Amino acid sequence: MYELKVLILGKDPSLFNTQEEKHIGDARRRHIFYCLRLRERFPGSEIRILTYTPSKSGINFDAPCEGLQLYGTASLHRATYALDLLRTLPRVLSDGWRPDILTVQTPWEEGVAGCLVSKWIGASFVPQLHFDLFSQDWAAEHWLNPWRKRVAKQMLRCAQRVRVVSEALRENVAKECGIPLGRILVAPVGVNLVRALGGKREFKARILPSIAERKVVLFVGRLCAQKNLGLWVDVAQQIARQHPDVAFVIVGDGPEEGTMRERVRDIGLDNRFFFLGRKMHEELPQIYAAADVFLLTSHYEGFGRVVLESMLSSVPVVSTACTGPEDLVEQGITGHLLPRGDAEGLARAVSSLLTDTSKAEAIGKAGSVRAQAMFSLDTLTERLIDVWASV
Asked: Pairing relation of β-strands 124-129 and 162-164?
């Protein structure tokens, strides 16, 4: 039995949320779990993570569990992140530690640094792709994105293995980058969500007493252009005409929140929409438990974590057919997939589930069974370790 040494380069400062704080970051929990399971399969293995942290945080080293060490870049700005990776790297390697695998969470900034460093130290380079790099909607969101796409494609071609989070993304990477399918492995991000047990009315009353007796259509996620929130509101407007007492609950924050709120006011639905803001991971199970339908209208997704969380909570899902949800949702069995932009179709699907409670319960249950069998944290962690072990 051999050991594996894995170096991860990333951008998630929430990894430094400590156990003494009220809320431990979900990313921290997952990586602790990854390390424990890795060491079970390959005793003596180690993971070291070098991630972006702002200089004002004052945190640049942490060891959450045996075999796992975190290093922060203490960057003055995100624009200096790649240089700060290279500046901080000697600390990670100062004790003679050398990784077998170097993996990066996005294949451009840290991807370039990771590719160069992996060649220097003789590690296998395994970039990760968590979203649809080839979406035209993503390319249009920022002037740098077309450049990022070009860099990413080159970095992916340099890799010994590429980790992606969905089958559709695997096929797209192979086609767009000319990489053999055998070098591209699917390992979605595991979801650590324990379903809240109890009645929907109880959870609705806990969240907002005013919605205790109402059907709830839920959205959870970042309020950004990717989620196509204008379409979400258009769908809600059609649903509201057929279901006069339905409530629309929005969980999350982001740059599109103001625009979404303004649109809701313009169509006269501000008394039907409830913006709860960003919630800690520990609060989400009760929120999902209060929902009757989960609605996602994204232009694109990498995996669709919120779809999986809804399924684990036995909430039927209606989503646009995009990379990620296409892997998760079985049409008509565990949810409904509609073409992107199809407001009428999405509204009909949601309305049918609000009307037919038995059908909604059956789809929710089927989704929960599928999610637990195929996409549990245990299962997906093993798949991630399989990626590392395959190099």
From this structure: parallel
The secondary structure element, H or E, covering residue 243 is none
Structure token pair of residue 165: 């989070």
Residues 128 and 240 in one domain: no
d(CA 387, CA 218): 34
Q: Is 2's pLDDT higher than 90?
A: no
Nearest to 128 by CA among 151, 111, 148, 109: 111
Whole-angstrom distance, CA of residue 281 vs CA of residue 266 = 32
- Tell me whether residue 358 is exposed, middle or buried, using C-beta atoms within 10 angstroms of its C-beta: 0 to 12, 13 to 18, 19 or more: exposed
Task: At 330, list the tokens.
Answer: 């079985």
| Shared-domain flag, residues 132 and 219 | no
How many domains does one find in the chain?
2
Determine the distance from the C-alpha atom of residue 346 to the mean position of all C-alpha atoms in its chain, rounded to a whole number.
22
**pLDDT for 292-309, tens place per residue?**
999 999 999 988 899 999
Helix (H, G, I), strand (E, B) or coil at 99: coil
Residue 75's alpha-carbon distances to 10, 88, 120, in angstroms, are 13, 10, 24
